[in-house]
Design brief:
heterodimer; A: mainly beta; six-stranded mixed sheet; 11 strands; B: seven-stranded mixed sheet; four-stranded antiparallel sheet; globular
Chain lengths: ~110, ~110
Amino acid sequence: SQKIEQNSEALNIQEGKTATLTCNYTNYSPAYLQWYRQDPGRGPVFLLLIRENEKEKRKERLKVTFDTTLKQSLFHITASQPADSATYLCASHNAGNMLTFGGGTRLMVKP
Amino acid sequence: DAGVTQSPTHLIKTRGQQVTLRCSPKSGHDTVSWYQQALGQGPQFIFQYYEEEERQRGNFPDRFSGHQFPNYSSELNVNALLLGDSALYLCASSLMGVTDTQYFGPGTRLTVL
């Protein structure tokens, strides 16, 4: 079955460093992947979408890569700030507008 | 421009009861999807409504049902509640045919005792 996986362990980094989160998928080839941010008790907020024919996408301090050979997407936050602390979700589109989410990775940025 | 709204914010029910959750999509959107998010996990797709019909369904039992109204708002109904139904229920709206971002509401926190 289709699976999308993220590191369930929390990532702790120091303010100013680059945070890198990983998303791996198996048993299918998504046409695109999305990354969302979710704060406790709130709904996910869309951050970036990357298509399979795009190697890299950037938005301000955010960067996403898509490696179809490794079946992996990496999500980077440069010059991280304590306000970046949240859970980050990777998701892929299936038929229609149905999203399949990974379990999310919690990021903690310490001042 | 109002985003996706959901009601109620929190709900406490007991096992065996029934619950109805409501969602109003973002202005201009015609498709509503529902997700269940257990604590510490990613959202799981329940079903999607478009043109007042269920278009897609995830791996959820028939106890989960829904409805979409002519104004595109939607309801999620869960019958015979189980303890395992305790979760954050998220509504997401989008525009059919536009394979782009989905906008999520704040969610309804359901606790089943």
